[in-house]
Design a protein that fits this description.
Elements (H helix, E strand, L loop, with lengths): L4 H8 L3 H8 L7 H13 L6 H8 L4 E7 L10 H15 L3 E7 L1 H6 L2 H8 L3 E5 L7 H7 L4 E4 L8 E6 L1 H14 L5 E5 L5 H16 L9 E3 L4 H14 L5 E4 L2 H13 L9 E6 L12 E4 L2 H16 L7 E4 L2 E3 L9
Length: about 350
Amino acid sequence: MSVTIKDIAKAAGVSITTVSRALNGYSDVNEETRRKIFQIAEAMGYSPNMAARSLIVKRTKTLGLLISGITRTSVKDSIAFEILCGTNDRAGELNYDLVLFNTDTQKQKMKSYKSLCLERGVDGVIIMGIRLDDPYLEEVVNSNIPCVLIDIPLTGEGVSSVNSDSVNGARIAVDYLIKCGHRHIGMINGHAQAFVSKGRLEGYRKALDEHGIPFREQYVEDGGFTESGGAEAAVRLLSRNPDITALFCASDLMAIGAIQAIRNMGKSVPEDISVVGYDNIGMSEYLTPPLTTVKQDHYRMGYQATQMLIDMLEGRNVHPQVIIPAELVMRGSVRAIG
């Protein structure tokens, strides 16, 4: 038969209530008594009934990581995996379980965000990949389920966010190109429904403005954060604007596509066109030439988001928004020109 808290109480010479409160972390139990109870529980091989405990304390010590639109093609950029690693590590360190669930537009039509969370029995959720037009977005912000958003700078009651500094990340990338002598710099952005796209476009414009270079609408194309989209955008930009000498891409995947398109057009990187990416995904340093890019610490973002969510669940003060700095990694895909 399994050991119960009644057995532990008898062995420790205390009440069942004292054992229960000690095992559940209540602060009104004497530290010496708590230590004794834990030692006895371990010696007797006690294993708590987590389902029963969750009914009592209204918590399961389970966190959700909701990622929208995971596909086989998204594996290449490794961003979701790095965030998952940071999330999983911090959750494990603080004795929380983690449940990963993916959603897409079709699932969202059938099941609300709140229903999804209740069905999985999570205390709170970390969310990444939601678009501006995502039907879950308003529901997330107005829900009573605590959540931390990654790269979605919204806050509210029970809602905080961890964001990379997209504005400054883009600014330092374009500033570097300008200091290398480039004045005609195209931009391949993601799409209009991404928060990071807005930030990276703002940073691009800011760098141009700081150097007195006019912003040209015709120098900006969207590539949808995909390799093929980056290739198509590069062809459109370079065909219509032969004076462009450099491309700033809002993701490394789009930069990879752009480099391939440049080669297909009979040009070379960086001899004819310099290219800067964004994200510093694992494969970026192994390209030919290695890709100059903006590094984001995705592991840290996942780790920080988990800490914030657990602080929220355990009643500690949580800053509504944390910004993770970005840095430029200079490699071989940029050439200085006169």
